[in-house]
Write a structure and sequence with these properties.
- The structure is a single chain.
- The longest helix is centred in the last third of the chain and has 30 residues, at 294-323.
- The protein is mostly helical and 326 residues long.
- The chain has 14 helices and 5 strands.
- The two termini are 32 Å apart.
- Helix content is 56%, strand content 8%.
- The strands form 2 sheets. It has a 3-stranded parallel sheet with strand order 1-2-3. Strands 4-5 form a two-stranded parallel ribbon.
- It has helices at residues 16-29, 41-48, 53-68, 86-95, 100-104, 107-115, 124-127, 129-139, 152-169, 208-216, 237-245, 248-260, 265-291, 294-323, and strands spanning 3-9, 34-40, 77-80, 144-147, 177-180.
- α9 (152-169) links the parallel β4 (144-147) and β5 (177-180).
- α4 (86-95) crosses α8 and α10 packs antiparallel against α13 (265-291).
């Protein structure tokens, strides 16, 4: 089967946006492709280098949620980036051939610096993020990387770097192609995009009480001040979540009830809470099982790391030979 590679930064807890935007898609891909899914803990250090204490907990949270959401260690390879030292070696070698201007023109380079202006991101690790990302992808000679349309430009630099390497040293790496997927936009409880940085997320590790409380206090159409006021569902973040979690019939009922004041915002949120719970309840149950058996988690990581390391070692043998290294 063709190989697929993807990963997530261990920079915080996973939320509903990560679940429907990536994890559920990954679960579907593992039946059709040779999938490698990793936890990018080195990437997390590019912006969170000053808080390594939080890194371990974030890695474990990702690992638990990967499996609880449906990734099957018998159907895909789950590994931790820092457990495969070959990634660092390939990153170093790619840094020898990549023009500085390529890294400086990556759109997220300046955007992220502005977003995280309270941190000193004038480091090579932050600037060289695309190189490490490229090493992650081409190390496994992945044919596809699942991305949304807006992320295709970020993959293009990896294709350019692989192409440049091949021009210098021969055809070692295939150019990774985008596996275009639909990523639903999931609003946070304040109406902005759901994000750890905004503190507006519903996390997979939240308790049922916390999830219910967060949804109950979500903003809705500001025009609905009183229960009898009519509203516009398109202006309500709650309705945007209904589009992701509720049935077509339920969405139609919510729209009608909002526009005619036939239902109140609390009634609307109760339907959403019920449907979010349907998605989260099996994840909560699996999380509880996994957290009660840490040895099982360590065994999964060891198995995945071993398999990934074998592929990485073979790749680096080809790289060293192509570059004339010992």
């Amino acid at each position: 089967m063709d190989r697929v590679l993807s990963g997530m930064q261990s920079s915080g807890k996973l939320h509903l946006g990560n679940l429907v935007g990536a994890l559920q898609n990954w679960v579907g891909l593992q039946a059709r492709y040779d999938c490698y899914y990793f936890i990018a803990d080195w990437h997390a250090l590019t912006t969170g280098y000053n808080n390594p204490a939080a890194l371990h907990d974030s890695v474990m949270d990702l690992l638990v949620n990967y499996i609880a959401a449906g990734l099957d260690p018998d159907k895909c390879t789950i590994f931790i980036q820092s457990g495969i030292l070959e990634h660092a070696e390939l990153h170093l070698l790619l840094s020898m051939i990549t023009p500085l201007g390529w890294l400086e023109r990556v759109p997220t380079y300046k955007e992220k610096q502005q977003e995280l202006s309270e941190r000193d991101l004038s480091t090579y690790g932050f600037l060289g993020y695309p190189l490490l990302q490229t090493a992650d992808i081409i190390m496994y000679k992945a044919k596809y990387v699942p991305v949304g349309v807006d992320q295709v430009p970020h993959l293009e630099i990896s294709r350019e770097i692989a192409r440049r390497f091949n021009n210098f040293y021969g055809d070692v790496f295939p150019e990774p192609a985008a596996l275009l997927t639909q990523f639903p936009k999931v609003p946070g409880v304040d109406g902005r995009k759901m994000s750890k940085s905004y503190g507006n997320a519903v996390y997979l590790s939240d308790s049922p009480k916390e999830v219910e409380q967060k949804i109950r206090t979500m903003t809705t159409d500001p025009a609905r001040v009183k229960r009898t006021d009519v509203g516009d569902p398109d202006l309500s973040p709650v309705y945007q979540l209904h589009k992701v979690f509720s049935t077509t019939e339920e969405q139609a009922e919510v729209v009608e009830g909002c526009r005619t004041a036939g239902i109140g915002c609390i009634d609307c949120k109760k339907v959403l809470i019920k449907n979010v719970f349907k998605v989260l309840e099996p994840i909560w149950a699996k999380r509880e099982e996994l957290l009660a058996d840490p040895e099982q988690l360590h065994a999964i990581v060891e198995k995945g790391n071993e398999k990934a390391r074998k592929v990485a070692q073979e790749t680096m043998q080809h790289v060293r030979k192509a570059m004339g290294l010992w």
